[in-house]
User: What shape does this take?
Amino acid sequence: MKVLLIEDDHALAQALSEALRDAGLIVETAPNGSEGDFLVRTERYDAVVLDLGLPDGDGTRWLSQWRDDGLDLPVLILTARERWSDKAAGFSAGADDYVTKPFETGEVLFRLRALVRRSHGHSHPVLSSGALTFDTHSGSVTLAGRPINLTAQEARLLAYLMHAAPRTVSRSELSEHVYDRDHEPDSNVIDVQISRLRRKLGSERIETLRGQGYRLVAIETPA
Ligand code: CA
Assistant: This one.
């Protein structure tokens, strides 16, 4: 899951992005609205965390432009303001949720995960596919009740496939959503990680559709 954090408070942006990265997210940051706007329009993110008080204009201004232009990705607004009118302005500009500063980074994480799940049509924190489960809160994966150890990168890849299932996901979509912009993998890296996942989960669980990508298949039996 790849998130863009638009926040001009450098210390806050750094602390929050570190906490989100520790939780396994890919985080990119922008220190103002215009850079954020550029990234939102050129990169693919699963969600945006948007500060309302930005040096080059109120966050709601950028947000309502995105919505006007049909950009419908989930947006969580950060606001230092307690007043209901500011939150209402955020929602009417198209925000999906908000967190008031000061906040616990854990709260931002939970809200972001919930937003991304809902945007993929899932409302429950535990994703499942046949005998396979993925708890998006704890990051733990089980197969027929047995815990499976995955590396952080394998877990990210699996979480994305599970969120998308039963849709087929192309390699370019995976490389945009599962890997950092500065560390975009060649397709060989994706192949290697897919084959490791297959070894751990059972090869028939991840189907390759030639020329199209990968698809998670729900299988009720263990590997
Ligand atoms: Ca600010």
The chain has two domains: 2-119, 126-216. DSSP finds eight helices and 13 strands in the chain. Residues 8-9, 51, 53-54 surround calcium ion (CB under 6 Å).
